[in-house]
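We modelled the chain as a single entity of 345 amino acids. Its sequence is:
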Amino acid sequence: MDNNSEFGEVKVEGVSKTFDEQSVLAKIDLKIATSEILSLLGPSGCGKTTLLRSIAGLENPEEGRITICDQIVLDDDIHVAPEKRKVGMVFQDAALFPHMTVEQNVSYGLKKDVPKKQRVAELLEIVGLPNFEKRRPETLSGGQKQRVALARALAPRPSVLLLDEPFSNLDSALRVEVRAEVHRLIGELGITTIFVTHDQDEAFLLGDRVAVMNDGKILQVDSPNVIYDKPSNNWIASFVGAVNLVRCKASGDKAETPIGFLKLDQDHDGDVELVIRPENLVITSGDDAEIETVEYYGHDSLLTVKLNDGTKLKVRTAPATSHIKGDRVGLEHKDIEVSAFRKNT
């Protein structure tokens, strides 16, 4: 479809931004490769939307450099206007013009010499809304609005696509459906994409890599499995999934815990905090612990188990668990290495 598009990399170097003397972006460095999908993950207020808007040209950082497709669009002397940055952006609320038809919305940013009807029809077919040209936004569902917004962002053949939590206003079932469709479409187009979300599952599903952000800083950039299995600190470990943070003493490649000695992925000595994922714990026969709660989620169950010394651990099991509150059980860790951090890191 977009044979005339030229996708390229995005580089952010030393970008800083403040609002009311509060630092929102603190010397951000980030590189997104050509045709890569990068998920920008972080809690509300961490600066991820400000970073996205800075790349789009909707915010003007006080310092730093942003390069899109080898063109400097921001530095100390340059500020390229948003419409000249070769980016398309999809907002959280779709932001369609209510007084315009779908066709008028999608074609809004097209140049006069572009065959608009043909381009709109092509895009609506691709996003799964053929023959919707004459519809108005108030007649569309939330998912349809977001697909129209995506078509509008793609209409000028941008080199980079920016998505700012585009599924957060959709109900859960529709969110999964639209997310899958958008992921498939972006993959087929091969367009360089930055996707902002506060949802770990969404970030992991969509991103080739994930950049974890907090307090205006990029904390770690890695593939989803590395972010989950090898977080760079215990805050990331807690943010990207259910976790047990267990304080104990380490010596070399082992740590002594309430459930025995565990192997570490790096040597440590002294007081540490272990990252133990619930799915790596196994309920066994025994009398070392008591089940306090059982949470059923359909695809699995999450148990809270209290050891005899008072330590509480979350354990993920198959959904059809036979265990109930009050059962006495044993607990073991799978024979895999765990990450450890110094306390308060």
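As a brief sanity check on the tokenised model: Helices lie at 48-56, 102-106, 116-126, 142-154, 172-189, 200-206, 224-229, 234-239. Residues 220 and 232 are 7 Å apart (CA to CA).
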